[in-house]
Structures are given as C-alpha cells and as structure tokens.
C-alpha cells in the first residue's frame, strides 16, 4: 500500500503502544511535522514526538506502525491534528486500532549475569567504532552508573537520535529489566535534561526507555537472554546492529554496559 | 585559525538524517579542496559546544534544527562546500535511520518484492492450519505453490486445487516433501544430474527413490513435481496430477514421464491412465498396489524403455545371520517406502500391521507399544506422528526410541529401516542410527539373540551426506544396506522367512 501523491487522503489503520493510543485519543489538538522522511514522519504534539511509520521504518516505541510502503511528501512544520483516535496529516489519516506491547521483558539476575560473557564474545570488536565516537570518561561514568554520564552523553552525536542518547536508552531499558540499583538516579538525570539537551524525538525515546520500552529487536534480545537461548540472542544482536547508522549499536553498547555493571557488582539490592 | 577564512553556519529546521549520514556528509565535505573545517549535526547543546570549540558561532537554535557549519579558504570554496552538503544530504535523505530492510510480511508482498508475480513458485511451510491462506495468497499473485506443510484440511486442499486448475496454476502438496523445479531441488531433494526424465509424484520418498535409482544408472531428471500424498485419492481426484502431467508434456526437454504414487483410488488411477495415454510424451505409471511393480521394477522398466543398461543396484555390508526372533519390524521415515515394503512383504509373510495399514483392520497405534505377535511396519512421517514435532527425516528421536524397543524385544526377528539422504534431511543420519544399532545388536547378542538389521539408504553420492559414507557407517554397525528399498524388503522377508520354516 502506498500513500498517493495526489488526490484524496489515505486513511489507514495503525498499531501503537497504549500510551500512544492515549495520546491520540481525546479532543482535537494541533501539532506540527518535525522531521518528514520517506519511511517515517515524526510529529510533535504537546511536547511529545509521535512517529508515523511505514513497513520499512525502525519500530520505535513512540511510533504508529502502518501498513504503508511510503508516506506522502510533507514539509517541516506542516500542520498536524491529533484526536479522536487518529492522527491527521496533509494527505494521510492514521487511526490507531491495534495496541502493541513495547515494553521489554524483565530479566532474572541469574540470566542477566550468565548473558554477559556470551554477549561480549558475540560482539567482539563490533562496538569499537561507536565507542570511539564517545568520550571515554562518559563511558566510564556510565559503567559506574554515575549520573554525570548523562550530562556527557545526552545529545552527543550528529543524528536525529544522537549516539549518546542511544547508549543511554539501551542502558535505561536494560537497567529496568534487571532492576539496577542506580536506575532512579540516572533516570532522574535524563528526565531533568532531555527536553533541553536533545532532539524531541530522542527525548521522547529516552522517556520511553525510562519506562522500560524499546524497539522490538531489543525486546527479542532480552527474551533470548531470559530463556537462555543463544540462537535468539545471536539473531537479536544482528538485528539490532542493523538498526539505523549507529542507533542499534549504541543501544547494544548501553545494554551491555548495564549488564556488565550488574555482573561486576553482583546482584543489586 | 586562518584569518582570511570564509565561514558559514546555517540552521535547517526539521532536517532528517541519521548519524552515519551526517558524519559521512561532514567528512566528505571536510575533504573537499579548500575546505578547512565542516560539521553537520543536530543542534543539541553538546553538538553546539563541539562546534563552538571548532570556532564556529552558532546562533540560537533548537535541538531539532540541523546545523551546517563550514569554514573554507575562499568564497568559491565555501559555496562549493555548501553545494556539496546539499547534494550529500539529498542523497542520504530518502533512506534514513528508519531504513532497516524488513523482511516481507505476507506471501503476496514477498512475491511482489521478488518480482515473481505472474510466474514462479512459492514454497509454503507453515503449520498446516494456516497453509491454505498463504497458498491462496500465492495463487492470487499468479504463482505455482509447493505446500510443504502437512495436516492441511482435505477440503482446503480440494478448494485450492480447483482454483489453481481454473487459473492454469499448479498446487504441489499439501505434504509435498520433494520437488525439482527448474533444476533446483525443493524440500527434501537429492542431488541428481539433470536429464530428460520428468516425475510426477504423489509420494515424496517414492520420488526420491526413483531419483536415486535413476542417478545410480546415470540418468538425470529434468523436473520432479510433487502433488501431495492425497492427490490420487477419490476426494481430490488427481487434480494436481493432471496439471503436472500437462506441464511436463509441454516441456520439450522431457522425453519420459513417470507418475509415482502411493496406492491410489482405483477410479482415479483409471482416469489418470486414460489421460496419460493421450499425452504426446510417454508416461510410465508407478502406482503402488498389490501385484503391481515396485519402484525398483519401474525404474528398471524405464531404463529399458530408454535403451539404457540396468545396473547392479549397490549394496553394502556382509550378509546377516538368520534371526532368532519371529516378527518383522519395519520402522520407516518414508511413507511410500513403508507402503512399498508392506505390499512386497505381505505377499510372502501375510498380514502386516501398521499405522498406515493396507487395510483398515490391520491398523495399530505405535504410540501404545509394539504390534505384539504380528509383523508390523510404522511410518514415522505420517501426519499423526509429526503433529507438534519435526519430520523424522529431520528429527530421528522418535524412531530411535522405537528402534531401541524393537531391538530389545526378544520376539523381534528382523528390523527393516530406511534412511533418506539429500538436502533438507539430517546432516549425518547414520551417526545416531549406527550408535543405536550397535548398542541394541550387541545387547541382543549378549542375550544369545540375533536381530538382523536390513536397511534401504536412499541417496546419491552427490548428496550432502554422501551415499557411500552413510551406507558404510551403517554397514559397519552391522546392517545390510541397499540402495533399492524393494531389494532391502526382499532380503528382510527372506531372513524372516527362514524363521517361519520356509513359509515365507
């Protein structure tokens, strides 16, 4: 299904997380197009970022997944209305009809600790290129679960979801899954500064990571770790590494750091 | 810093590109002659700090803006660099951080993406309850369909084949384990030379037996079209068989057609024999049934019709001693090989009990134990035995358990087995089987019993498992191994008959 370039608006059904459905429900509100792309259009509504996703798009937890193969061309700042369960853009209306669970599975401490070594072995040096893009002091701080890491990473990196944010998102999602004792401090640091210090899309994704949500490939990784199935872990890692230019690798790096800190310090209280 | 340098810092609201694209743009532009520094990034505070550190003055901006900062030696170089940024961003903007190549999510979209709509074949391998939906999706895209799935409801098979025939399309299956299309083996397929023989098979392992016998005689197969084990039943009426025969008849590279099937419904067999007789390509019928030629005889007849020499079919291992037990126990992964064995053995040994019996009154449920005081043969590939588990050609566990039981049972006379090689099958089927055989035969010997094991190994030297390598391993474990299932059955019957005082 393709969105037509001209003519009547396309109306299609979409699937999204419950909080997205809640955001879209209710009375009509105005928003604007933030980032129009071929595979995804990100819009801002009430300070949050929602994505309208084609079948090719990364399935971000703030996205509404549609069956569309492409989206109509849109201009930055184009008007968006949200309400009544639908998102309306020029040439496109998406109604949220299906709920998705974008939360990550919880992990037992045993599973998480056992997963570290095989994960390190599978990744080998494949995260080195993203590590090289980040200040060593920031990674050291994150390894120590020091909230100072947030200041050094948030918004660092050129892309729409800066690499530093991807690493933080991976760390937060994993920290929730393993109930990391330092989670509250880092979560608070992110919440206090994300809106000012990074893109609206990335800030939204960090907020969702702070609620234990992430891309399904990360959920699959946690599932594989949870059931102790190396094949699932291996496949999920490859899928994650394929996300974006460096986003998936950044998420993996953050996840690995969270798991390593757990394995190093023993079971968190 | 070069005091004569030209500098520009632009903000672009809502620009959309991923990290790698922006890093690439920055590096590409920075490498342009005359450019002293270039940075393209989202204008987050940290990125703005970096830019400030590089000597750029960034105006007030939002993290959602993209900032393009370039310093060059001259106005011309600066203009060229900004143009290069525009070009590079335009090149990267249509595929972004969101551009992961997701696999197609429906059969129709897979067909469209692969460009096979209106020609080609879709292989459907999903749980049987869902196979018809996917098959219909493929037919709607103008594709032939091979349904590997079993446990597909009969009425769905009938409906699919009726629709396919109306559209001049072919439904291979359900439960179609083997096919060779355009020289490519699908499902469980042996590696054989290409040649002028075409096979229409309502029987996967029957087809594989023919493929391998012909390969051993140096004869190749151009196409093998499976039609599913129920196609020649009264309910289905040979719908796909007619379609497949027509296809092969129209193929100028096919000079001989063989139609192989498990025992068919008599009226369907008659109707198809009449249909085949009207085709321009000679059709050799290999329809298993009482008193009809076995698959090896059919292969030999075909070779004779082609003017080819019939070879001595290979065998491995020394002759086994006569058994001490009484009953023949056949444990098969191939349904047609089991059918063929029952048809041949019954002529000499009398009734054979089975989970796929030649007559209903001979049926028994293998999961409730052995057949007791009777000859028996079990097809472990039967639908009822594969529900919730892989086919025994992939997962041998269940048959190995029954083999252990049979070898430990003092009433067992001869054990008759099949091993089917080729793509899709176990990578080393002889390994686990030989281990079980050695242990079971040795334990029997310790009890003063002899349990001869006779085995048909259906494969070719070119198969991934290697025919001789597997057969040698099994022979080393004490089995008599034959390429021809019919010859293996004949030997097993001979050994069993020795106990029955020549009554066999």
Brief summary of the model shown:
The complex is a heterodimer of chains A (269) and B (504). Chain A has 269 residues and is an alpha+beta fold. Helices cover 46% and strands 18% of the residues of chain A.
Q: Any overview of this molecule?
A:
The complex is a heterodimer of chains A (269) and B (504). Chain A has 269 residues and is α+β, with helices and mostly antiparallel strands. Chain A is built from eleven helices and eight strands. Chain A has an eight-stranded mixed β-sheet. In chain A, strand 6 and strand 7 form a beta hairpin. In chain A, helix 6 packs parallel to helix 8 and helix 10 crosses helix 11. Chain A is globular and about 55 Å long. Chain A starts with 9 loop residues before the first strand and ends with a helix. The N terminus of chain A is likely disordered. Chain B is of the alpha/beta class and 504 residues long. Helix content of chain B is 39%, strand content 20%. Chain B contains 16 helices and 19 strands. In chain B, the strands form five sheets. In chain B, strands 13-19-18-17-14-16-15 form a seven-stranded mixed β-sheet, with helices on both faces. In chain B, helix 6 links the parallel strand 5 and strand 6. In chain B, helix 13 packs parallel to helix 14. About 2% of the residues of chain B have low confidence. Chains A and B meet through strand 2 and helix 8 of A and helix 1, strand 2 and helix 2 of B.
């Amino acid at each position: 299904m393709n969105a037509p370039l001209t003519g009547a608006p396309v109306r299609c059904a979409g699937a999204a997380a419950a909080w997205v459905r809640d955001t879209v429900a209710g009375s009509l509100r105005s928003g604007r197009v933030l980032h129009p792309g071929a595979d995804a259009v990100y819009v801002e509504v009430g300070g949050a970022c929602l994505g309208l996703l084609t079948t090719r798009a990364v399935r971000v937890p703030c996205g509404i997944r549609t069956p569309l193969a492409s989206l109509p061309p849109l201009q930055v700042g184009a008007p968006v209305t949200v309400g009544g369960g639908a998102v309306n853009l020029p040439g496109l209306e998406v109604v949220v009809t299906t709920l998705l669970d974008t939360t990550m599975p919880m992990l037992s401490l045993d599973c998480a600790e056992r997963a570290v070594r095989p994960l390190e072995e599978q990744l080998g040096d494949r995260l080195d290129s993203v590590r090289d893009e980040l200040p060593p002091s920031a990674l050291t701080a994150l390894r120590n679960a020091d909230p100072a890491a947030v200041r050094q990473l948030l918004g660092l990196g050129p892309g729409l979801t800066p690499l530093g944010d991807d690493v933080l998102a991976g760390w937060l999602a994993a920290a929730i899954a393993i109930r990391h004792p330092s989670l509250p401090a880092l979560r608070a640091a992110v919440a206090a500064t994300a809106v000012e210090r990074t893109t609206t899309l990335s800030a939204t994704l960090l907020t969702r990571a702070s609620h234990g949500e992430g891309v399904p490939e990360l959920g699959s990784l946690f599932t594989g770790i949870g059931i102790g199935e190396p094949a699932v872990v291996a496949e999920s890692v490859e899928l994650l590494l394929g996300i974006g230019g460096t986003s998936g690798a950044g998420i993996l790096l953050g996840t690995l750091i969270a798991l390593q800190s757990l394995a190093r310090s023993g079971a968190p209280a | 810093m070069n005091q004569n340098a030209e500098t520009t810092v632009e903000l672009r609201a809502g620009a959309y590109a991923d990290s790698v694209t922006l890093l690439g743009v920055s590096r590409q532009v920075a490498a342009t002659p005359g450019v002293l520094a270039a940075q393209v990034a989202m204008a987050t505070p940290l990125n703005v700090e970096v830019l400030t550190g590089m000597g750029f003055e960034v105006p007030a901006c939002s993290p959602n803006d993209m900032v393009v900062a370039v310093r060059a030696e001259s106005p011309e170089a600066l203009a060229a660099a900004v143009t290069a940024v525009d070009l590079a961003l335009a090149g990267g903007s249509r595929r972004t951080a969101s551009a992961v190549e997701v696999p197609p999510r429906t059969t129709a979209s897979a067909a469209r993406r692969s460009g096979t709509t209106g020609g080609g074949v879709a292989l459907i391998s999903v749980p049987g309850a869902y196979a018809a939906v996917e098959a219909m999706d493929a037919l709607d895209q103008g594709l032939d369909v091979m349904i590997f799935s079993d446990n597909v409801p009969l009425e769905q098979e009938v409906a699919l084949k009726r629709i396919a025939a109306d559209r001049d399309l072919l439904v291979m299956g359900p439960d179609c384990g083997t096919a060779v299309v355009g020289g490519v083996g699908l499902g469980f397929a042996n590696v054989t030379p290409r040649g002028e023989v075409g096979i229409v098979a309502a029987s996967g392992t029957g087809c594989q037996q023919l493929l391998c016998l012909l390969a051993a005689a140096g004869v190749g197969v151009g196409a093998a079209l499976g039609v599913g084990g129920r196609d020649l039943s009264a309910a289905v009426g040979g719908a796909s068989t007619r379609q497949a025969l027509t296809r092969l008849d129209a193929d100028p590279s096919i000079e001989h057609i063989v139609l192989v099937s498990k025992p068919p419904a008599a009226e369907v067999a008659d109707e198809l024999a009449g249909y085949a007789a009207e085709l321009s390509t000679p059709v050799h019928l290999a329809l298993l049934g009482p008193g009809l030629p076995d698959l090896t005889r059919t292969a030999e007849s075909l070779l004779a019709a082609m003017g080819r020499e019939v070879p001595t079919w290979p065998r491995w291992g020394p002759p086994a001693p006569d058994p001490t037990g009484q009953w023949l126990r056949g444990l098969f992964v191939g349904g047609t090989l089991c059918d063929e064995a029952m048809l041949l053995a019954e002529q000499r040994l009398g009734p054979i009990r089975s989970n796929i019996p030649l007559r209903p009154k001979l049926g028994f449920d293998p999961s409730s134990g052995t057949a007791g005081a009777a000859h028996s043969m079990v097809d472990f590939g039967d639908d009822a035995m594969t529900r919730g588990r892989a086919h025994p050609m992939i997962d041998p566990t269940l048959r190995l358990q029954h083999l252990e039981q049979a070898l430990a049972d003092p009433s067992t006379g001869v054990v008759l087995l099949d091993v089917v090689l080729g793509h899709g099958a176990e990578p080393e089927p002889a390994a686990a089987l030989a281990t079980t055989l050695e242990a079971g035969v040795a334990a029997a010997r310790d009890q003063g019993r002899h349990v001869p094991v006779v085995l048909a190994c259906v494969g070719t030297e070119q198969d991934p498992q290697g025919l001789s390598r597997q057969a040698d391993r099994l022979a080393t474990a004490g089995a008599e191994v034959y390429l021809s299932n019919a010859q293996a059955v004949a030997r097993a019957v001979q050994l069993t008959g020795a106990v029955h005082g020549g009554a066999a």
